[in-house]
Amino acid sequence: MVTRSETSTADQVIHLLQLLAADASVAEVAAAEAPAEARDLALRITGAREVHQHREAGLAALLDTARELATESDPGSVLDAIVRRARRLVGTDLAYLTLYDPEAGDTFMRATDGSVSAVFQSVRLALGAGLGGLVASTHKPYWTADYWADERFRHTTDIDGAVGEEGIIAICGTPLIVEKHFVGVLFAANRSSRPFTREEVGLLGNLATLAAVTLVQTRALADAENALAALSDAHETVRHYADGVEKAAAAHDRFASLVLGGGGVDDITHALAELLGGWAVLVDENGTRNSAAGPAPEPDASGHDPVAAVDAMPGLGTGRLVERDGIYAVAVTAARERLGTIYVGGLTLEDSDQRTVERAGVVTALVLLFERQAADARQSARNRLVSDLVSRRGSREERLALARTVGFDPQRPFSLLVLRGDDPSGHRALLISASAATGEASVVGAHDGDVVALVPGLDADGLARAVAARIGKRTCVTVAGVGPVSDVDAIAEAHEEGHRTVGALIALGHRGKGAAATQLGFAGLIVGSDPDVDDYVRKLLGPVLDYDERRGTDLVGTLAAYFAAGGSPRHAAGTLHVHVNTVSQRLERIAALLGESWQHPDHALELQIALRLRALQAPA
């Protein structure tokens, strides 16, 4: 028969079994009424179950963490996920992660979760210093319930200051290691004292291992992606370079075919504009536009050329391209001599395009050298022709034939110009400028240091002035005109007169001007090869001579007596044996005939010379 006591004990044991079946906590099992032996056994079972459940939860959390980390491709996001999971799994106030810096030999704060201190978030941990430094130097986990009271760690001012500002007391740190390579340290910390169980330390260690592997893999993936991007960039660079080489080859072939086909600089300029787009302009060494293609900006009303504004850029003379305000320029040089400048605009040039412009500069220099050699050969022939004509070398028929071979007929009236520049080294440039200023119908050559031009036209003075003004825009040149000349044998005397006239112009202070000997007054009589005294006298005294001839008066005599008396009407009256009023009346008539300026010093000097020459002339 079962007693009441046995029935009560059985009920208590059944109640314990029910609690175990319901996954009751250790506290609930400990509070149940049951025999001590049965309760102890139930407590051991409940504790083992809780440990097992805790481990299962940890493993499940690790699996969830692995899945979360597997979805991250950015190293920064991986680190944030690691500290966020660590804080949740261990159940601490904050979690953080430091990474190893091989160059500095320490670890630095990389990611935090739950931190509030900026100082703590930027702290660096030297190896061996503090709890984290000890983990980093030994590659072993360390934990403490009270960091401040734990004497195992070497406390430093920087680390303790950062830890104190964050308010941390309990810390657990475990290393991140992959294949014996130290990566960093993962921490879980609390702002109040709390012990860390071995299960929590192990869980944090497992998470650190998983995090380290994931971090290394993520870095490897990032490195692979960077390498792939670099490879893609390199491929694009190679492709771009290949395109540039192809474009450069096409430009080279285009320029080569132009040169071999006899093309000139104008063809090169147009080809450059077509190859690049935009516009291209070639300016010669004198600053004059030689050729242009495309919508290039034109000079303004004042003559300012916006294209040539780049000419003063540093480095232009090196043969490399320079740029300013969207205009590119390259100097055209040969044998250290500047032959011109190529300007390009209206576009943005890539490297290959810039090399194309520089190549165009080299090809243009070659073409200009060829043209210069041909021009020099032609000019040399012109020099010999002009020298033969001026020196009367050969027979008259031979000289006529030579002149006509270049399209010039010396038997038709023409003017002879003598040009003299200020710069002796610019003789060749002066020849070129004179040819351009006088036109294709003229013959320009050099003789005895002078530039001589035979120019169709009768107005020697007007031609001399016009040529001096045109060339004078670029360089100072003095021009003497002689003519008209209408015979090949008269060229020598005309040149002699022009040679003396240009010297007289310079001596008289008219450097940079142009004039004929006939326009120099009495000085023209001195420098002229065949002075026309009658013409000079008639030019100055003509109105008075005509009056005397018509009226039978002697105003010329009165004028001569007036000048001989030093400009005194009274003394002149005594010489002429007339009343002073008569002299005054005659002088008024002379003023009406010659103009009010007849008594001005320059005019009066010319009149006195004309009166003297008339007196010296033999009677007709």
**Count of the domains:** 5
Sheet of most strands:
6 strands, antiparallel
Q: Assign the CATH architecture of the largest domain.
A: 2-Layer Sandwich
Roughly how many Å apart are the termini?
A: 195 Å
**Number of alpha- plus pi-helical segments:** 20
Shape: rod-shaped
**Global mean pLDDT:** 77
CATH class of the largest domain: Alpha Beta
Q: Got a strand count?
A: 16
Question: Which labels suit this protein?
Answer:
single chain, 620 residues, alpha+beta, Beta-Lactamase, 5 domains, 16 strands
Please tell me about this protein's structure.
With about 625 residues, this protein is α+β, with helices and mostly antiparallel strands. The chain has helices at about 5-20, 25-30, 35-70, 75-90, 120, 130-140, 155-165, 200-260, 265-275, 350-390, 395-405, 425-440, 460-470, 490-505, 520-525, 535-550, 555-565, 570-575, 580-595, 600-615, and strands spanning about 95-100, 105-115, 125, 140-145, 170-180, 180-190, 280-285, 290-295, 320-325, 325-335, 335-345, 415-420, 445, 450-455, 475-485, 515. It has five domains: about 10-60, no CATH class; about 75-225, GAF domain (Beta-Lactamase); about 260-375, GAF domain (Beta-Lactamase, 2-Layer Sandwich); about 410-525, Reverse transcriptase/Diguanylate cyclase domain (Alpha-Beta Plaits, 2-Layer Sandwich); about 535-615, no CATH class. It has a six-stranded antiparallel beta sheet with strand order 3-2-1-6-5-4. It contains 20 helices and 16 strands. A hairpin with a 2-residue loop joins strand 5 and strand 6. The termini are far apart. About 55% of the residues lie in helices and about 15% in strands. The protein is rod-shaped. Helix 1 (about 5-20) runs parallel beside helix 3 (about 35-70) and helix 8 packs antiparallel against helix 9. This is GAF domain-containing protein. It comes from Terrabacter aerolatus. Belongs to the CdaR family.
